[in-house]
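Lay summary. Proteins are chains of building blocks that fold into shapes, and those shapes determine what they do. In this project we predict the shape from the chain. Here is one chain we studied, written as its sequence of building blocks.
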Amino acid sequence: MRILVVNVNTTDSITQAIAHQAQSVAAPGTEIIGLTPYFGAESVEGNFESYLAAIAVMDRVLAYDHQPYDAVIQAGYGEHGREGLQELLNVPVVDITDAAASTAMFLGHAYSVVTTLDRTVPLIEDRLKLSGLYDRCASVRASGLAVLDLEEDPLRAVEAIVRQAERAVTEDKAEVICLGCGGMAGLDEQIRQRTGVPVVDGVTAAVTIAESLVRLGLSTSKVRTYATPRPKRVLGWPLRAGR
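And here is the predicted shape, written in a compact code that computers can read:
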């Protein structure tokens, strides 16, 4: 099995970290291919950057023609674009936002998301509502860290995330914590030890879900909402700026 894991930003080191985390939980025989978009922002922390990332992710996946692949993971929390990928592809598409929240719902009555900057909170809430996963969400809390801060100062990042996770458990009555950023991949065990509750990393959750869908022979329904785009002339697409 081969799974493409697509970062939503253009920082290669984050792509490598995400791919490493994904491979760590992949079943024997599953190959993880990390992809970085050819264009876009170095970190995604708002609507403009998120919409740009949606185009860049679709462009990058369409440009990948080296080997066949069995599933795609969009590794951006609360970002736009999953629906476009589902229209374009015939393989399963899993978004880490949906993967984390749906997994958390097996583990407790209510979950909270701990993310980066406060400005991303409404985006995550909206994506969870769109996916039908918001009813069991106790809260979405911001750590106050920018995406790139997670890489530059991991000790500070853990402390900031733990602080908000503890408040989510004690104040919001969350029973499970979701890490609300692909750049938080690998921090789940440290935060679990500090909070005493299950902590779900969206990247690893997405890998196991994608593998399950492939093994079950299931993929996106094409009869209506995510039908293949109708053939028509699209100016300037695909961009594939890095080719």
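What the prediction tells us: The radius of gyration is 17 Å.
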